[in-house]
Amino acid sequence: MTGSAGVRSERTIVLALGSNLGDRLANLQRGITELCGAGLRCTAVSAVFETAPVGGPDQDDYLNAVLLASSALPGREILSRCQQAEAALHRVRTVRWGPRTLDADIIACGTEVSTDPLLTLPHPRAHERAFVLAPWLDVAPDAVLPGYGSVASLLAAVPDRDGVRRLSQSAGCLSLPAEAAKEADSTCR
Ligand code: ADP
Ligand code: MG
Predict the structure, then answer these.
(1) What spacing in Å lies between the alpha carbon of 119 and ligand 1's midpoint?
(2) Disulfide engineering: 63 pairs with which of 24, 51, 72, 149, CB 3.0-4.6 Å?
(3) For residue 76, what is the enclosing H or E element?
(4) How far is the CA of 183 from the centre of ligand 2 (A)?
């Protein structure tokens, strides 16, 4: 939202991360490092969820997580940041919804609504994707998907929710860059 002085105020940014190629957990952690900073203040990251692929060709299971941030950057700049993070992980686009080292999608930018195909807000498939809703609920139990309702009620209604499994902390977790800098060991919740 832009105020009367033309100054955009901070809003909550919800990013969904996924990886199913190579060292999936390391890819997600590297993605967080690439995304956070320079106007995108990362505030929390969910537990890691292992999920069966939805759509696309036959491929390995994904690890998914949701990253929360606070930012006044325009959505298009955040999308560029996501694409830079994917490029840093050497993501190659061959088939649609094919395997990838990193997928970084914007789920919501505050309450902004956009039908622009280059940046649709909220993300047009978030409401039906358990691999987005489950980690989002994990990190923000009261979250609401603008225009759709509470994340908890959406998750309860999606058919693929049984294809999503929360990893135990010992199996893997992610940390924000600031947390990682404070402790050599990652700071799982
Ligand atoms: P997907 O994430 O659906 O598997 P891609 O990552 O290849 O597919 O994204 C395809 C295109 O979707 C991108 O080029 C981007 O411009 C567009 N897009 C539209 N809305 C969003 C959004 N909310 N988040 C990320 N990409 C989006
Ligand atoms: Mg994407």
Answers:
(1) 7
(2) 24
(3) helix 75-88
(4) 31
Cα angle value 54/60/61 (rounded, 5°): 60
Supply the residues annotated as catalytic. 91, 100, 103, 105
Radius of gyration (Cα) for the chain, nearest Å?
A: 16
Nearest ligand (C-alpha, residue 120): 1
Closest residue (by CA) to atom 27 of ligand 1? 119
Boundaries of every domain in the chain:
11-180
Fold of 11-180: Alpha-Beta Plaits (3.30.70)
List, in sequence order, the alpha helices (H) in 125-165. 130-139, 151-157
For residue 75, give the ligand 1 atom closest to its CA: 23
Exposure string over 15-48, b if 16+ CB within 10 A, otherwise e:
bbbbbbbeebbebbbbbbebbbeeebbbeebbbb
Distance CA 132, CA 136 (A): 6
Mean pLDDT of 158-164: 89
- In this structure, what token pair is assigned to residue 163? 């294809």
Instruction: Tell me, in angstroms, the distance from the centre of ligand 1 to residue 176's CA.
Output: 24
Q: Are 27 and 89 in contact (CB under 8 A)?
A: yes
**Residue 120 Cβ < 6 Å to ligand 1:** yes
Residue range 21-75, pLDDT digits in tens: 999 999 999 999 999 999 999 999 999 999 988 777 777 899 999 999 999 999 9
